[in-house]
Design a protein that fits this description.
four-stranded antiparallel sheet, globular
Length: 126
């Protein structure tokens, strides 16, 4: 059973950067597409970024495009979300999620993601 654990959240000032990590155990990540989602207080959960099994292809929603970068290291069973130029509206709990996906393109963020981490809090505030 795949297990995911997020880390790297915290408090950062607007314009700052954070690096979130998603560490996997229980299975090898190299057959899983990975996504990051976030949920702000009082709002629905939204997909942010996703990456294909090999890491060759990624997708970011428009609100984070150019500021967030998703990457993965299958040898280390980890996925990273680098977040730059952070804004107060990026404040949320961030979750990583996984699904088995045999393609070199990531699945839609609206598809079914079966494995979830517990989340890490990101707060952007001065």
């Amino acid at each position: 059973q795949l297990q995911l654990v997020e880390s790297g959240g915290g408090l950062v000032q607007p314009g700052g950067s954070l690096r979130l990590s998603c560490a996997a155990s229980g299975d090898s990540l190299d057959v899983y597409a990975i996504a990051w989602f976030r949920q702000a207080p009082g709002k629905e959960r939204e997909g942010v970024s996703c990456i294909s099994t090999s890491g060759a292809n990624t997708y970011h929603v428009d609100s984070v495009k150019g500021r967030f970068t998703i990457s993965r290291d299958n040898a280390k069973n980890t996925v990273t979300l680098r977040m730059d130029s952070l804004k107060p509206e990026d404040t949320a709990i961030y979750y990583c999620a996984a699904q088995v996906f045999y393609s070199d393109y990531p699945p839609s963020l609206d598809s079914s993601w079966y494995y979830w981490g517990q989340g890490t809090q990101v707060t952007v505030s001065s």
